[in-house]
Amino acid sequence: NDDQFKKVISHAKEYGYVFQSSEIYDGLSAVYDYAQNGAELKKNIRDYWWKAMVQMHENIVGIDASIFMHPTTWKASGHVDAFNDPLIDNKDSKKRYRADVLIEDYCAKIEAKIDKEVAKAEKRFGDAFNKEEFISTNPRVVGYYEKIQEILTRMGKSLGTEDLADVKALIEELEIACPLTGSRNWTEVKQFNLMFGTKIGASAEHAMDLYLRPETAQGIFVNFLNVQKTGRMKIPFGIAQTGKAFRNEIVARQFIFRMREFEQMEMQFFIKPGTQMEWFEYWKEYRMKWHLSLGMGADNYRFHDHEKLAHYADAATDIEFKFPFGFKELEGIHSRTDFDLKQHEEFSGKKLQYFDHEDNASYTPYVLETSIGLDRMFLAVFSNALVEEELENNTTRTVLKLPAVLAPVKAAILPLVKKDGLPEVARQIFDELKWDFNVDYDEKDAVGRRYRRQDANGTPFCITVDHDTLEDQTVTIRHRDTMEQSRVKITDLRDIIKKEVDV
Ligand code: ATP
């Protein structure tokens, strides 16, 4: 909901996670900077992905291709002709909308009606309430679901063609049925290309038009044969990479959910034609397991299989996550056939084929891709972690329950008081632990306030040095989520922390 989302945004700023870019100049829309804690969290997410995808897979290797690519790349990939968003302007409010996003917002409104019906029935039937059964039999709810399905099908059909008149008609109908924008006066729907252009070269005559890459995938396709040969890779094998991508998003909103400069984590898996459905299922399951391994709640994820497929795909699904503004795409898993390699063969005139020794034949591999936005994953993790807890003494505490493996700071070392030699001992512990973990030293304010600060910052452990420490070489270790404290030996700290934060 709106309130929760506002809290997420202000917490991200207050605790040094995400700042608006160029804030002193009033910012740049849909561009953000990661601050001291945000950069750590982002790096930890990237590493967690890289470990699962590259390190744990003998047959997947990682590369780091350039942002700039030969301009023909984007002709071959279809981005020059078809990487468009359908835009519609409201003549009254002068506001511009992405037509497909607007239609999804109407659907979300209908979904909210379903939620209301469910909540009402739950109240009425109490313990006897069976949600599944209710959803599939209640005529009103079934009607809402059918309506959503119909809207999405109609939108899909129309967006797949040149004729966008029905998209406009659909928006007009929906605005009457469930008002959202408050105005009914729309322009035609127009397609708008999302790529940023720039130039390479000093002199005007020799300058060459370039694009900033709108996805990282093409850097992998054009390197396919180089990697396969030099790495002596045998199909099936994958190439992974993480890196920046740029899109001139028109409806830039929802904080770091939709940015103009963002980072993707992609893996293209090269397979034998005909095996794509097996691999599609494999990667669907694997990627969902990866998400669930972070312990952010199975209820917060769902698959959304695409009915309308992009021209290059023969199967596609999204992993959607429950953001504060509802379920939205977090990751895409696409079966891209041999479309990309074939296109690059055609445009470059170079063969991009694989010789299969077992079959004694060459073929153009098919590709199965997993593609997730790092920033979107950051938002999923961060928004899910932020909670306000009522404590027994009627106070509340703000705590950022980040998965320990992703938390920017793993432990804070706190001397109980700033005298009697306690800071020196705390510093010693800090200096030992910093070899293995990102740790904090904090001696300012009462220890209770320091605990709260670390809770809000997502630090899984606080380690407090007190007078007993001087006698028996033990410290108090406090767990962020349970607030439980126990007494442990200084020499055991490393293992205790490692057990929680290692995967
Ligand atoms: P959307 O429909 O939300 O615009 P998309 O289907 O165009 O996304 P893909 O091209 O499949 O997205 O990109 C793969 C992933 O990259 C997405 O699942 C998302 O996590 C991320 N992503 C795409 N566009 C953006 C953006 N503008 N800002 C942040 N992340 C993005």
UniProtKB/TrEMBL annotation:
It catalyses: tRNA(Gly) + glycine + ATP = glycyl-tRNA(Gly) + AMP + diphosphate. It is found in: Cytoplasm. Substrate binds at residues 98, 215, 262-266, 369-373. It comes from the Bacteria. GO terms for molecular function: ATP binding; bis(5'-nucleosyl)-tetraphosphatase (asymmetrical) activity; glycine-tRNA ligase activity. Keywords: Aminoacyl-tRNA synthetase, ATP-binding, Cytoplasm, Ligase, Nucleotide-binding, Protein biosynthesis. Residues 144-415 form the Aminoacyl-transfer RNA synthetases class-II family profile domain. It is an enzyme of class 6 (ligase). The keyword Protein biosynthesis applies. ATP binds at residues 247-249, 257-262, 329-330, 373-376. One of its GO terms (cellular component) is cytoplasm. One of its GO terms (biological process) is glycyl-tRNA aminoacylation. Its main location: cytoplasm. SUPFAM superfamilies: Class II aaRS ABD-related, Class II aaRS and biotin synthetases. Catalyzes the attachment of glycine to tRNA(Gly). Belongs to the class-II aminoacyl-tRNA synthetase family. Homodimer. This is Glycine--tRNA ligase. It comes from Bizionia myxarmorum. The gene is glyQS.
